[in-house]
Amino acid sequence: MQDTYKTRDIHEASFLFASQCKLLTLESSENGYFFIFQNLLTCQQLADSYWDKTGVVVAKDLADSFGVLKRKVFQS
Asked: 35: which strand partners?
């Protein structure tokens, strides 16, 4: 898939989801799941802000996003 961003880290994925990135699908792997998001450039910029601790989201949105993604993993 072109123009997609993949991460295996559920906390990073939760941040992206809370930042309004569109989750396209989950992809199974030997070590768990990849979260695949639309729009590589936007997601990469947001992921960079997550990892360098400059990204900002509403705490409740982050917690809700984590719950949604966790349920998606366990439903798969």
From this structure: 7, 26
Token pair listed for 10: 């559920």
Q: Number of helices and strands (H, E) in the chain?
A: 3, 3
4's tokens: 């997609």
- Residue 53 CA to its chain's centroid (Å): 16
Q: pTM for this one?
A: 0.94
- What residues form DSSP beta bridges with 6? 36
Neighbour-count burial for 45-69, b at 16+ CB within 10 Å, e otherwise: ebbeebeeeebebeeeebeebbeeb
In this structure, what token pair is assigned to residue 49? 């802000």
> pLDDT (tens digit, 9 = 90+) per residue, 18-52?
999 999 999 999 989 999 999 999 999 999 999 99
Query: ∠ CA(45), CA(17), CA(76), 5° rounding?
Result: 125
